Amino acid sequence: GHTDIIHDADFSPDGQTVATAGADGKAILWNVESGQAQLEVDAHEGNVQSIAYHPKGGQIATTGGSDNSVKLWDTTSGAELAKFEIGIAVTDLDYSADGSKIVTADQSGTIKVWSANPGEELLSIDGGEATLNSVIFSPDATLIAASGTDQQISIWNVKTSQLERQINAHTDVVSDLSFGPAGDKIASVSH
């Protein structure tokens, strides 16, 4: 198991496994029924900040604090499938619903969209001065929502790269976001 704080968790699409991201640099896949670790990967140097299952299963994506990268891992063998060099600490990531794209947020406030394989940068958005803590695609992948230390939720249009809406929803850091299934609502969490 993990030997330090767990930063993030995500269920597999079939609900049989939970992937966890730890401050110990490990990504661990846990069997939901038995509670036993199925696979343990030394994913990054230092923290594994964020983890996400591919929507069709078979792979996970992880972000590492000190090695400034996103890595894709095979969930059966633990083999590293790809590595995207970001150049700055990546704080969060999310797959599009079809699994073809990954969105990342980083400490500089930049939002990037990548092709999930082979990791080609498709879009870069200057999200402002704030460190971003959370970034997600809408269910139809037409919008990206991001939040962070500026206490706001910013919603961006993927096609035009334009800011669609900014919501002043909290009085402290916004640490996590979730779109509703239809994409017309968003939930947020603050400290």
Task: Describe, in plain words, how this protein is organized in 3D.
By secondary structure, the chain is mostly beta strands. The protein contains no helices and 18 strands. The protein has strands at residues 6-11, 17-22, 26-31, 37-42, 48-53, 59-64, 69-74, 80-85, 90-95, 101-106, 110-115, 121-126, 132-137, 143-148, 152-157, 163-168, 174-179, 186-190. The strands form 5 sheets. The protein has a 4-stranded antiparallel sheet, with no helix packed on it. The chain has a 4-stranded antiparallel sheet with strand order 5-6-7-8, with no helix packed on it. It has a 4-stranded antiparallel sheet with strand order 9-10-11-12, with no helix packed on it. The chain is globular, with a radius of gyration of 16 Å.
